[in-house]
Amino acid sequence: MTTLSSSLLGRTYREHGARIHAALVRKFADLDLAEDAVQEALVAALEQWGDGAPNDPAAWLVRTAYHKAVDRIRRSKTARDKQNAVAELAEASVDGPVEDLFRHDDPLRLIFLCCHPALPFESQVALTLRTVSCLTTAEIARAFLVPESTMAQRIVRAKAKIRDAKIPFRTPDESEIEDRIDAVLSVVYLVFNEGYAVTAGERLVRDDLCTEALRLARLLVDLAPSSGPCAGLRALLLLTDARRAARLDANGDVVLLEDQDRSLWNREQTERGLSEVERAIRLGSPRHPYTLQAAIAAVHARAATASDTNWNDIASLYELLLQSSPSPIVELNHAVAVAMARGPQAGLSLLDALALRGELDGEHLFHAARGDLLDRAGRRDDARAAYARAARLVTNEPERRFIEKRLRELA
């Protein structure tokens, strides 16, 4: 396979993997079968695309995966009751127009399938990240801060539960949505976060995941138009994603928020985000975590320059977020906001208290933030030590380059 074809295959899977998986689950109602068939289709593409990539790679993959799934069912000696269904499935052509292969709401249906309340919350989120976002088990394990083997077992058990309980592949009705919406929102939020700040690898941003999360957030708002949390999440994603083009310089290096060229921010997207956060508040969710985070992003969006940012408002919003959704990461962000509003020492006092608990000791962002505040406070030796610790922990190359640059400047 040529390098060009291999690159096309990887890009196709990243951009269309969710739709391909969801289309297979819709046809066969079997998560394991769908995943195995897609993997076989990818192997077939590696072998065959060297002679020339197809005109529509996504359609080629879903058609090939469909035939692989049918072959698997036919070969199964323990699935005789499925063979009659296979005969019917085989008659349903997958060689027609592309629009007949995919349905725009398939990924959303797949999310709701994976987020069934019969599963533990952590398993709901992990399984959805695996099947919808096509993240590897290792990537999901890093997001949950658990060993890869633990995450693999969690995903296997979740699939078995869905299969044994015969949970249907469909969008739930209004009464069922309330039971699943928190997990669904969490999944979309995590998908966006992984796209906006990739956990590991050569890139900082995965545009495909950001775009897919934004699309799913819009579908959720359409599905539940009176939901304040749905509006809050969409506002948060719109306002955050509006800054995406300014996050890297021409060399692919990280640009901090305070140094970004704000003319690169997507103004249309910002306006939609500001309107959506106001709608979330009107819908009665002013204290929901996503609405509060969207309100914080709105403060940044309204500031014409970094120096115009109202850090006192941001610190106050983080205090409310700590009350509604306490976590070490929120404490970290609150400490940074306090430092910007009241001086670096005020923020360092909060970080020192957080450090004593050790919950973020293995997180590079904590040590990088501490290094920045120590530098602002004039404690350069301590700042170097903090950045050195961050450099040992970081797994993303653009962030690594940024931290190493700060170390050189401090030296």
* Range of strand content: under 5%
Secondary-structure element order, N to C: HHHHHHHHHHHHHHHHHHH
* Multimeric state: single chain
Q: Averaged pLDDT, please?
A: 87
Structural class: mainly alpha
Distance between the termini: 47 Å
Strands, count: 0
Residue windows where pLDDT falls under 50 for at least 5 positions: none
Q: How would you describe the shape? A: globular
Helix content range: over 70%
Please describe the biggest sheet, giving its number of strands, its sense, and whether it closes into a barrel: none
- Radius of gyration equals 23 Å
Number of helices: 19
Question: Would you mind describing this structure in some detail?
Answer:
There is one protein chain. With 411 residues, the chain is mainly α. 70% of the residues lie in helices and 0% in strands. It is globular. It starts with a helix and ends with a helix. The model has no long low-confidence stretch (mean pLDDT 87).
Short description:
With 411 residues, the protein is an all-alpha fold. It has helices at 3-28, 31-48, 57-75, 80-91, 106-114, 121-131, 137-144, 148-165, 174-196, 207-223, 228-241, 267-282, 289-302, 311-324, 328-342, 344-357, 364-376, 380-393, 397-410.
Topology:
Blueprint: H1 3-28, H2 31-48, H3 57-75, H4 80-91, H5 106-114, H6 121-131, H7 137-144, H8 148-165, H9 174-196, H10 207-223, H11 228-241, H12 267-282, H13 289-302, H14 311-324, H15 328-342, H16 344-357, H17 364-376, H18 380-393, H19 397-410
